[in-house]
Specification:
Structural class: mainly alpha
Radius of gyration: 19 Å
Largest sheet: none
Helix content: over 70%
Shape: globular
Number of helices: 7
Distance between the termini: 43 Å
Order of helices and strands: HHHHHHH
Number of strands: 0
Length: 149
């Protein structure tokens, strides 16, 4: 990827990063405005877990996000490590690029896109999947059950 492509990608990621809190605020409002019975109907259980009893790569992510928003990053990490990792990358990317854009690119501290961030995220998801499913299948320990946290 050449420099122009990287800059264009980072600009698009920055715009997407600005939209993300708006989407989160909208979801928060919907959660507060919709009756809890309707939210219960709209929540979809994990099909893989329902059929096989094993966890999918995303299982625990919603609870991890909830714990992170409650200011409990350790519990968030235990439920799904990709959530605090993604949040840290997001915050640094947005903060550093905001400083860079507001300074007219005189202060060049913007986090640069690297494929390594994605590879590390994939490794985290895979490791999380293996650990939780091995604990469940081999030892009968459900790491996503609240009594273990």
């Amino acid at each position: 990827m050449n420099e122009a492509e990287r800059v264009h990608l980072e600009k698009n990621l920055y715009i997407a990063g600005l939209i993300l809190p708006c989407a989160g605020a909208l979801l928060f409002l919907l959660q507060k405005l919709l009756p809890s019975a309707l939210l219960e109907i709209l929540s979809v259980p994990c099909l893989l877990h329902a059929v096989t009893g094993l966890y999918c790569p995303g299982c625990g992510g919603t609870r991890a996000a909830g714990y992170l928003l409650q200011g409990k990053p350790f519990l968030s990490f235990l439920y799904h490590p990709i959530v605090p990792y993604g949040a840290a990358l997001y915050l640094w990317f947005m903060l550093s690029h905001t400083v860079e854009y507001l300074s007219g690119r005189r202060i060049r501290i913007g986090m640069r896109y690297r494929n390594g961030y994605l590879y590390f995220a994939l490794a985290l998801v895979f490791l999380n999947l293996v650990v939780k499913n091995v604990a469940l299948a081999a030892f009968g320990v459900d790491l996503l059950d609240k009594m273990y946290v």
